[in-house]
Design brief:
Blueprint: H1 2-72, H2 77-103, H3 107-124, H4 126-141, E1 149-152, E2 155-162, E3 166-170, E4 176-180, H5 181-186, E5 189-191, E6 197-206, H6 212-225, E7 237-243, E8 248-257, H7 261-278
Antiparallel strand pairs: 1-2, 1-5, 2-3, 3-4, 6-8, 7-8
Helix pairs in contact: 1-2, 6-7
Length: about 300
């Protein structure tokens, strides 16, 4: 009985140690099998980390140089900030594509997916994108700024706000008009207040029986009277412009400061009328004579 028990223990010990040796042999074989893959993975991981660190550093340098370039070009802060953010997104997208290529992920499918999504979004937001592009052009080229008086799209008024998509204008009768930047940038824009000086053009009609020299003398005296408002360092013009159907037309052109334009126009017209009345110089106007024929019956 004792010998039988010993045999059992011996077999158990042999089985135990034999199993240990077998398992140890399997682990080493597995390690040798997957070691190249593990080393390759660690190498790629190291390369990825280096690319991330170097790529982020280069992106920050490029963005700083771009911001400084926008500052030197005096581009609007809103536009420069938006362009930099878009540029940053594009650069990081390129960095992700490089990392995917290093890891072994196919980038063609990702680019195709992004392109199709971009095309779909672009078609859906075609009008908004046109307004956005127009806003970028307006803010970069600066045909006008906030506070300028402009005439565009059949409207005129003072610009109060310029956004990336819309421009807000207040009309002279205090109406707020919102103009889409896409339409605004594609049409003609008259910036009335862009220059500090403006020429005031008036056409003064007098009768054919009136003295032209006397009328011109009156206009000369009015100019001398307003030397504080009229810019005398700029040439002014008082000359016969045209022989109209019922009047001799005299051009009266003077230069004034931008902010004095409307007040001076009204004041000059009023003074010319009073001066002509005092000197009995007529200002012709269209008249309609109606004759009534009396019936004999």
């Amino acid at each position: 009985m004792v010998s039988a028990l010993g045999n059992i223990l011996a077999k158990g010990s042999a089985g135990l140690f034999g199993s240990t040796v077998t398992h140890s042999f399997d682990f080493m074989a597995t390690l040798e099998k997957f070691l190249p893959s593990l080393l390759s993975f660690l190498g790629k991981l190291l390369i990825v980390l280096i690319i991330i660190l170097v790529g982020r550093k280069l992106i920050n340098i490029v963005l700083k140089l771009t911001e400084k370039g926008f500052e030197r070009a005096h581009i609007d802060a809103g536009v420069s900030g938006f362009i930099c953010s878009v540029f940053k997104t594009v650069l990081y997208f390129i960095l992700v594509m490089i990392l995917a290529n290093v890891v072994g992920i196919a980038t063609t499918s990702i680019v195709a997916l992004v392109g199709s999504v971009g095309l779909t979004v672009g078609l859906a937001l075609q009008g908004s994108l046109a307004n956005f592009a127009g806003g970028i052009l307006l803010l970069v080229l600066k045909p006008f700024k906030v506070g300028d008086y402009i005439i565009a799209q059949g409207l005129e008024g003072t610009v109060t706000k310029i956004d990336l998509f819309y421009t807000t204008v207040n009309t002279t009768d205090n109406r707020t008009v919102v103009l889409p930047n896409g339409t605004l940038s594609n049409g003609s824009i008259i910036n009335v207040t862009h220059q500090p000086e403006r020429r005031l053009d008036l056409v003064i009609p007098i009768g054919y029986g009136d003295d032209i020299r006397e009328a011109k003398g009156i206009l000369e005296r009015i100019v001398i009277k307003h030397t504080e408002q009229i810019l005398m360092d700029r040439d002014y013009t008082i000359c016969v412009a045209n022989f109209g159907e019922s009047a001799v037309e005299i051009n009266f052109r003077v230069w004034v400061k931008q902010e004095d334009y409307w007040n001076m126009r009204a004041e000059l017209l009023e003074e010319i009328k009073y001066a002509f009345d005092e000197q009995h110089i007529s200002i012709p106007f269209n008249q309609l004579d109606v004759y009534l024929k009396k019936s004999d019956t």
